[in-house]
Amino acid sequence: MAKKTDFNGQSDDQLSEQLGNLKREQFNLRFQAATNQLEKPSRVREVRKDIARIKTLQSQRTAATGK
Fold first, then answer.
1. Cα separation of 13 and 36, whole Å?
2. Residue 13 burial class via C-beta count within 10 angstroms: exposed 0-12, middle 13-18, buried 19 and up
3. Measured between alpha carbons, how far is 7 from 34 in angstroms, rounded to an integer?
4. CA distances from 20 to 13, 44, 48, 52 (A)
5. 10, 31, 40, 45: which could form a disulfide with 14 (CB 3.0–4.6 Å)?
6. CA–CA distance, 62 with 46 (Å, rounded to integer)
7. φ and ψ at 2, to 5 degrees?
8. What is the pTM of this model?
């Protein structure tokens, strides 16, 4: 699980790419859970929280620039 400080040093493009990767991983984890092949159930929660952290940081940056 990444901390907010881990994401602060990344550019907007890097955050968008990381968000895409996490959403893809979340999609795969949902399929694994549906077929009872999930090895680490706690990873679902970690990915969901990391996605929320990135989205929060993106919205804060957008609000700060006044877009």
1. 35
2. exposed
3. 30
4. 11, 15, 12, 12
5. 10
6. 24
7. -90, 150
8. 0.86
CA atoms 8, 63, 15, 37: torsion sign: positive
Hey, what amino acid is at 44?
V
Tokens found for residue 48:
């969901």
With 0-12 / 13-18 / 19 or more C-beta atoms within 10 angstroms meaning exposed / middle / buried, residue 37 is: exposed
- The structure tokens listed for 65 are 């620039």
> In whole angstroms, what is the distance from residue 32 CA to residue 40 CA?
10
